[in-house]
């Protein structure tokens, strides 16, 4: 009766209840893992918006099973917390505004983040209508030229062209800008 002193009751199980108890354990473990995975997803999504691929990768890093990852992705998508279209628009707009990136660089970054080419095309078409790529390139070139003023014109042109190329601007836009630079 010692177990009764500590508030623990001994249960005598029949064969049927033992089988039921054993069957409930894997389901309870699955539910616990699902809850942990959802909480991980919520925490990860509160930091900043994520793509479906990023969130799936994070859950895989935490070693959740594939069926749990799929369930969590469907759950957060259904709640509206995960939307690759919205993510792509926010990410690209932020990168244009804060880093002055061009179309090619944005396409590359969004592809790495697992965004489909259809969503990328649609997003960039919309964004670059609002803020033309040539204007962004011109602003970035003006900022860079301040740091290149001590160099010879040929060196200045070469460095500016490389800078704009790394930012993801097309050769056509780069040539247009270089023609206006002295």
Walk me through the structure.
The chain is mainly α and 182 residues long. The chain folds into 3 domains: 54 residues, Winged helix-like DNA-binding domain superfamily/Winged helix DNA-binding domain (Arc Repressor Mutant, subunit A, Orthogonal Bundle), CATH 1.10.10; 48 residues; 49 residues. It is 77% helix and 0% strand. It has 10 helices and no strands. The longest helix has 33 residues. The protein is elongated and about 75 Å long. The N terminus is likely disordered.
Summarize the structure.
With 182 residues, the chain is mostly helical. The chain has helices at 2-5, 15-47, 52-61, 66-78, 84-99, 103-112, 117-130, 133-147, 153-167, 171-180.
**Main sheet attributes: strand count, strand direction, barrel closure:** none
* SS field, number of helical segments: 10
Q: Please state the overall shape, judged from the principal axes of the Cα atoms.
A: elongated
Radius of gyration: 27 Å
CATH architecture name of the largest domain: Orthogonal Bundle
The SSE string, one letter per element, is HHHHHHHHHH
Q: What do we call the CATH topology of the largest domain? A: Arc Repressor Mutant, subunit A
The CATH class designation of the largest domain is Mainly Alpha
